[in-house]
Amino acid sequence: MKIVVFSGAGISAESGISTFRDNGGLWDKFKIEDVATPDAFSKNPELVLEFYNERRKNISEVNPNAAHITITKLEQKFDVTIITQNIDDLHERAGSKNVLHLHGCITVAKSSKIDGHYKYIAYDDIKIGDLAEDYSQLRPHVVWFGEEVPELENAAAIIQQADIMITVGSSLNVYPAAGLIHASKTDCQHFVIDPNVEELKLPENFTLIKKNAGEGMSDLVQRLTLG
Ligand code: APR
Question: Which residue of 4, 92, 122, 194 could cross-link 162, Cys pair, CB 3.0 to 4.6 Å?
Answer without folding.
Answer: 4
